[in-house]
Amino acid sequence: MSFVENATITANRSLLPSQKGKRKSQEDIRLLAISTHMTELSYSISDIQTRIFEIQELRHKTQSTGDASGTTNVIDKSLMNLDERLDAVSEGMKSVNESLAPFLHPSDTHEESTSNELAEQTILLRKHGTLVADWEAVQDETEVLREELKEDKWLTVFRTVTEQADGMMSSLEKAVNRCQDFIWQVHRKGSDDPAPQPSFSNSLQSDKSPVSLEVFNSLLESFEAKKKHYVPATSKVLSIIDKGVQDRVTKNGETLRRHAESAKRWKNLKERISRTDGEMET
To answer: Which ranges are annotated Polar residues under compositional bias (predicted)?
Structure first.
């Protein structure tokens, strides 16, 4: 072996420890950067959990007061802010997963890892596993929150629509009661024996009209007009409510109770309308 060749080999051997040390230092920096990023993501996830809790508190406040007007906008803005933070964490998780890909698939890693390096990688992977579990949990919490907020909005719509149906049924009931009161007066006038006054007539003393053809025509016209507009409208509204209740995954007690009451009330009212129709014709 020549002097030059020997010198070259010696020089190369002397560089090996230095090169390995440099690679080790770079690897340490990379692992530290990944670990730091995961810590930041963990803090962000904790912040998201706090914001979910705050939105839930707003929900409960709205339910206890029954006034959604003051908190709906606040909740919507909070939800938008929450979505932005979720998107940011999602991008961060993708970055971390890509950085850890060589360690998540051992077959792709270098075989020359030292015991210290393997220990560091194991710690990092455990930290990553905890982070992934926290991330999946907060996504589940967010999904639950979204479903609950959807349910809240639907309940608000349900109450509004049910009140509309109740209002139309009340108007129809009033028209039916007036017709029934008139029919009772006609029967009483044509009978020698006084008949017991119907219970609904007590509430209509101030509305009682004399028995005449003019009054009959006026009552019939009002009755027919309300039937024409309110019967199909009420049927449509109640069918919408019925479909909404049937399609809901969660079953709210108030919803089920009010739906059952409205359905029963409408069934009885339709029977009274049909009976009144026949009596007014005769």
So the answer is: 198-207
Q: What is the mean pLDDT of the chain?
A: 82
Final residue belonging to a domain, choices 153, 187, 222: 153
Q: Specify the higher pLDDT residue, 203 or 119.
A: 119
Q: What is the amino acid identity at position 24?
A: K
In this structure, are 11 and 130 located in the same domain? yes
Residue 177's domain is classified under what CATH number? 1.20.58
Judge whether 80 and 90 are in contact, CB under 8 Å: no
Same domain for 171 and 263? yes
Provide the whole-model pTM. 0.69
Q: How many domains does the chain have?
A: 2
Place of tokens 């929450």: 82
The dihedral through the CA atoms of 75, 77, 83, 88 has a sign that is negative
**More confident call, 95 vs 156:** 95
Does one domain contain both 136 and 188?
A: no
CA 212 to chain centre: 56
- What is each CA distance from 35 to 49, 74, 138, 221, in whole angstroms? 21, 35, 20, 81
pLDDT score of 23: 58
